[in-house]
Design goal:
With 299 residues, the protein is an alpha/beta fold. It has ten helices and eleven strands. The protein binds NADPH dihydro-nicotinamide-adenine-dinucleotide phosphate (NDP). NADPH dihydro-nicotinamide-adenine-dinucleotide phosphate binds next to helix 10.
């Protein structure tokens, strides 16, 4: 029997619809329109596409978006000056700095400068630090990890006591997902490029989160029957039968994995749409907090 499909596209659409309704109610009540500033430095085509998608989603939800597209030659000082302005602008409630920044810019200094109340991407070191600490609540949780958790919750996947394996330890996906799973009482193993016997470790997983960026790496034989598989990976591979000669696949070999998994996300249509939905939710929350309408979040 095939796995239950976790339909991120539909779940994300429901969240976006809810954000749209709540935004309209917030605007009606306060006269304030939530605003997101999207800062993009350089010419990375994927980054341009992501920012465009995020701004379009804002418009659909009734959230104002302000685009700041800076040349690749932008200096650290110029970027920091912009962040300082956005930090105090009253019409900006969320600030998003699209990563990666060009190599000559100091990413950590930029992320640290973002006003923590407007850190809707959750990448401020203080927010990540709080995520790792017992009894502390970050102001915001990064969008992709929080989208992963929302999918697990929507599908009512029991996490307390479950063996969760996270493939990948990046700052933006793997590590925050692992921290969130620990907060939910899962027993978490984090794997990376130096992990020995990856298939053997993955086979212990009741819940597998794959975020490595390696096309179709996880095979059917790696999975415990009935495992819940969340595939964060987005990899472009050649496909002569596709219109543009390529297609997107995840880190998990979907055709194989769905035969044995209990639940699985597709790529595309799984985690991807959730990332934008969570960013919109965070931006509305930021506006509500700044205007004094909401209480702090619980990760
Ligand atoms: P990074 O490249 O920053 O991190 C990849 C991680 O995977 C690293 O920890 C690395 O280990 C580990 N890794 C790489 N190769 C292997 C291997 N062969 N075996 C075991 N571990 C390995 O990637 P990101 O976290 O930024 O992204 C991961 C994937 O998720 C990408 O495909 C990306 O496109 C996708 N993504 C999707 C998003 C969405 O919205 N759906 C949002 C963000 C990312 P080490 O630390 O040792 O180098």
């Amino acid at each position: 029997m095939g796995a239950v499909l976790i339909d991120g596209k539909t779940i994300a659409a429901q969240i976006r619809e809810r954000v749209k309704e709540q935004t309209a109610a917030f605007v009606a009540k306060t006269g304030v329109k939530p605003g997101l500033a999207a800062v993009l430095v350089g010419d990375n085509p994927a980054s341009h596409t992501y920012v465009k998608m995020k701004r379009k989603a804002c418009a659909e939800a009734g959230i104002e978006s302000f685009g700041f597209e800076l040349p690749a030659t932008t200096t650290q000082q110029e970027l920091e000056d912009l962040i300082n302005v956005l930090n105090i602008r009253q019409d900006v409630h969320g600030i998003l700095v699209q990563l990666p920044l060009p190599d000559h810019l100091n990413e950590e200094r930029v992320l640290r400068l973002v006003n923590i109340d407007k850190d809707v991407d959750g990448f401020h070191p203080e927010n990540i630090g709080k995520l790792a600490m017992k009894g502390r609540e970050p102001s915001f949780v990064p969008a992709t990890p929080s989208g992963v958790m929302r999918l697990l919750d929507e599908m009512k996947v029991p996490l307390a006591g479950a063996n969760a394996v996270v493939l990948g330890r990046s700052n933006i996906v793997g590590m925050p997902v692992a921290l969130l799973l620990v907060r939910r009482d899962a027993t978490v193993t984090v794997c990376h490029s130096r992990t020995k016997d990856l298939p053997g470790v993955v086979r212990q997983a009741d819940v597998l989160i794959a975020a490595v960026g390696r096309a179709n790496m996880v095979k059917q034989s790696w999975l415990k029957p009935g495992a819940v598989v969340i595939d964060v990976g987005i990899n472009r591979v050649d496909d002569p039968s596709a219109k543009n000669g390529t297609r997107l696949v995840g880190d998990v070999d979907f055709e194989e994995a769905e035969q044995v998994a209990g639940m699985i996300t597709p790529v595309p249509g799984g985690v991807g749409p959730m990332t934008i939905a969570m960013l919109l939710e965070n931006t509305l929350t930021a506006a509500k907090r700044i205007v004094g309408e909401a209480t702090p979040s619980k990760a």
